[in-house]
Design a protein that fits this description.
Elements (H helix, E strand, L loop, with lengths): L1 H16 L1 H8 L2 H7 L5 H32 L4 H26 L11 H13 L6 H21 L12 H8 L1 H19 L3 H24 L5
The chain binds 5-(aminomethyl)-2-methylpyrimidin-4-amine.
Pfam family, one: TENA_THI-4
Protein name: Thiaminase-2/PQQC domain-containing protein
């Protein structure tokens, strides 16, 4: 348990060290505007169309992670957790289609923005067999955790989230998704604990890059990029 605590401190340490960036990703003006009810619905629709494109690229990333877990993981239950994430993504793709139709967003004519293309390209770079499982699973945790923290905040005490956006917030802000992110964090911490310094540094740099991309992704909702 001692090692576990030490590694809990590792991700915690990164989050403390890079708190400003983490907060920029998880308390972005876009999600804060959902929380306070002032959200511009055209920004929400822009986010919806772009995120559908991102999620489609996220599926092969998770598939590559599954392959890495199968080859490299020291714990069989990792595969089940990642497979659960994959099943949730299957639901997510269907949800995006329903939600887009509800908001009259045409997914087939949504053009990926530069930031989205770059983020998807970054995901693709993480799919390479050269990228260590520890680095990829830590990135996976960070990607999921930003949405979980951001949308859970839109549902927490004092929020004025519009009724028609509550389902979106529930999708990532629900307790089950929170538990899943916690499990991913535990997997990442367990792996980091056993990793040499160079892998730990790569994982840290990758998490920072994920956080930067997440901020830029939310920025896209403004329609400026
Ligand atoms: C950009 C982004 N980051 C994270 C998630 C959560 N799967 C998402 N749907 N889109």
């Amino acid at each position: 348990m001692e090692g576990c605590n030490k590694e809990m401190l590792m991700i915690q340490k990164w989050l403390n060290q890079h708190n400003e960036l983490y907060t920029s990703a998880t308390r972005h003006p876009f999600t804060l505007s959902i929380r306070d009810g002032s959200v511009d619905l055209s920004a929400f629709k822009r986010w919806l169309g772009q995120d559908y494109i991102f999620v489609r690229a996220f599926v092969p990333f998770v598939a590559s992670l599954l392959l890495k877990a199968w080859k490299e993981s020291d714990d069989d239950s990792d595969i089940e957790v990642i497979l659960g994430g994959m099943a949730a993504l299957n639901d997510e793709v269907s949800w995006f289609k329903r939600e887009a139709s509800k908001w009259s967003v045409s997914l087939s004519s949504t053009v990926p923005q530069k930031t989205n293309l770059e983020y998807c390209r970054f995901l693709e770079s993480l799919m390479s067999p050269e990228v260590d499982y520890t680095v990829a699973v830590t990135a996976f945790w960070a990607i999921e955790a930003v949405y979980q923290e951001s949308y859970a905040h839109c549902l927490s005490d004092g929020s004025k989230t519009p009724e028609e956006l509550k389902e979106t917030c529930q999708r990532w802000g629900n307790d089950g998704f929170g538990q899943y992110c916690h499990t991913l964090q535990n997997i990442a911490n367990r792996r980091l604990e056993k990793s040499p310094e160079d892998i730990i540094s790569k994982a840290e740099a990758t998490v920072m890059r994920v956080l930067e991309y997440e901020v830029e992704f939310w920025n896209m909702s403004r329609g400026e990029t």
